[in-house]
Amino acid sequence: MNNLNINNIQKHYDIVFPHEYLEFQRETDGQTFDMIENGEVIDWEICFSALDDRFVANNINLVDDVNPDPRRIIPFAWSVSSGNNYLLDYRTNSEFPAVLVMDHEEAMVREDAESESETPEEAQKLLEGNVREIAANFNAFIACLKTRPSDPVE
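Predicted structure:
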């Protein structure tokens, strides 16, 4: 993770990553996490996307077709177990974006949304159904994470 890559990513999306997100990335480089809700694991093996020169291309190739606003909702992590994506939502708060989850099994691709809709607004509404807020900001999100123990080497 270097500053040039971070600056290029932020410039591409015209956003600034929350300081807490960048610090978390630096401190936990490569670790995976479980998401805990009411004492229960609700998603496991969550990995954070590397802030490297492939970050933007990976998002375009893997998530943009189901993302309701690829310029303002930025994928930053995914669950190896469920395939769900975690995204920063810059649409209403550019300083402290909310965290959204996208259930990959239920997400509708843009092409299908457009073919099933009579207007662009209807298609957009279908795509909005692909995401739901799970945390008001990044700090609230990481408060729900628990470091996943490493698998023992055999």
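Summary: The mean pLDDT is 91.
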